[in-house]
Structure formats: structure tokens, C-alpha cells
Design goal:
Blueprint lengths: L1 E2 L5 H4 L9 E4 L4 E7 L2 E4 L1 H4 L8 E4 L2 E10 L22 E5 L10 E2 L9 E6 L3 E3 L3 E4 L5 E6 L2 E2 L3 E5 L11 E2 L8 E6 L2 E12 L11 E6 L4 H8 L2
Parallel strand pairs: 1-10, 8-17
Antiparallel strand pairs: 1-15, 2-3, 3-4, 4-7, 5-6, 6-7, 9-12, 9-16, 10-11, 13-14, 14-18, 16-17, 17-18
Length: 233
């Protein structure tokens, strides 16, 4: 997570045990969220890199081997290589099956409403850390959180700016390298709901994850039917 420069790194560090439904692929280089005992939700551009039958993920202190990887049928991989990505209607979303169900961890429910615009979301990730002025400071794979306020929504995206102080939220931040696939969470009266999945940034040719970038998370509420049908929820 990359946060505002007038906050210390200590303020965004969290105990992974407090977020047991969060997990990572590739030794912390991408992320996912447990949404059912046997299913993870992540970004399609992450899932396409998962090798067949040779990967496991850590969840609540145990390793779980991966089974099927199901990428949304409308995702197109060539979209990733386009210069200065546009807000195309490309669902960057995938579900990954676990070979054995996770016990003693509550999956994160999906946000199914349409009121995301203006809400403050909590972002989780264990990728690169740093701040909006200097960008990357470390890549120690510790779990961090940041917050941001959703500025706009489209059929496919939750969109928010990385505002420099004095603007932004108290722990304003965006994803860094390695945070792809991680969650944007809405707190609904003490219950966390999964509203977005980390996908990409429009940087305006500035360095990644610095002030002024525009963060894009896949808008989960628009894909609840596909997720539920695929995972038999």
C-alpha cells in the first residue's frame, strides 16, 4: 500500500491475523479474498499467471492447494498491454477454487448495492509500501491498509483519486506493485463487505502510485450473479 506522505508507515501496518480472509499468491506479489470456504476472488490479470496444479496459498496459518481457475469470460488479456489504459468495459475478475475448504475463517460477503460512490473503502495489500511523494519505500510483504473515498463508479469500475494532503482521507492511499487482486472493503455497521478488486491505475505518465494517479478497482456489485453462479454460492 502507498499512503499519504504525512502519515507514518506504522499507521498502516496491520496484523494479518485480524484479516484471515486475505491471502496472497506468488509469495506476496498478488492478492485475493476468501469469499466462500472453497473460493477466492481476485483479478483476472493475476489469475492468468497461476500455474496449473503447482500453487498453494496461506490462509489462517495453513497452506491450501489451488484447483480450478475461472476467469470472467469477457476478460481479454491484450487489454493489459495497452498504453495508458482506458476505462474499457473489461471485467478484470476471476475466481480460484481451493481443493479443500477453509475452516474457522469467515468468508467476506460481497457488496450487492449500488451506493458505492462517495463511500470510504479500506484497502488491503502486502505489496510495495511507500508514500505519494516518494512512491516505493519497501517491499517487505507485511500486510498494510489504506483508505480512500470512491469518487466515481462505472459499470465496471470503482474509481478514486490519490489526493495529496490536506485532501483525502485520514489514511489516504492506493495500491502498490504486488497489491493487484486485493480487496476494497466497505464497513456496513461493523460487517466488512467486498466492494472492489484491485486492478489498475491511470497515472498520467507519472510514476505509479504517486499523487494524482486515478485508481481503478473492479466493481464487484456488477458481477455478483456471475460470481455466485460460478462458485455455486
Amino acid at each position: 500500500m502507498i499512503i499519504r506522505h504525512d502519515r507514518s508507515d506504522r499507521e498502516c501496518l496491520v496484523d494479518a491475523a485480524d484479516w484471515p480472509a486475505f491471502t496472497t499468491f506468488f509469495n506476496g506479489h498478488a492478492a485475493a479474498t476468501l469469499i466462500a470456504p472453497r473460493w477466492l476472488l481476485t483479478a483476472a490479470h493475476v489469475a492468468t499467471l497461476i500455474p496449473d496444479g503447482r500453487l498453494s496459498v496461506p490462509i489462517a496459518g495453513q497452506r491450501h492447494k489451488l484447483g480450478r481457475v475461472v476467469v470472467h469470460p469477457d476478460f481479454r488479456s491484450e487489454w493489459e498491454t495497452e498504453d495508458e489504459l482506458e476505462e474499457a468495459d473489461v471485467p478484470d475478475l476471476a475466481v480460484v477454487e481451493l481443493l479443500t475448504p477453509v475452516e474457522d475463517v469467515d468468508p467476506v460477503a460481497l457488496y450487492e448495492g449500488d451506493g458505492e460512490c462517495g463511500m470510504v473503502v479500506t484497502l488491503l495489500g502486502s505489496g510495495e509500501s511507500g508514500n505519494g511523494l516518494r512512491h516505493v519505500r519497501a517491499a517487505d510483504r507485511h500486510l498494510r491498509r489504506a483508505t480512500n473515498r470512491i469518487d466515481a463508479v462505472t459499470d465496471h469500475w470503482l474509481v478514486f483519486n490519490f489526493d495529496a494532503p490536506p485532501g483525502g482521507t485520514e489514511l489516504e492511499g492506493v495500491s502498490g506493485q504486488g497489491d493487484s487482486g486485493g480487496p476494497a472493503l466497505i464497513n456496513d455497521d461493523g460487517r466488512w463487505l467486498l466492494a472492489g478488486v484491485s486492478s489498475w491505475q491511470k497515472t498520467g505518465r507519472r510514476p505509479l502510485s504517486t499523487y494524482g494517479c486515478i485508481e481503478h478497482y473492479t466493481r464487484v456489485s456488477r458481477f455478483v450473479s456471475w460470481i455466485s453462479a460460478t462458485c455455486n454460492l
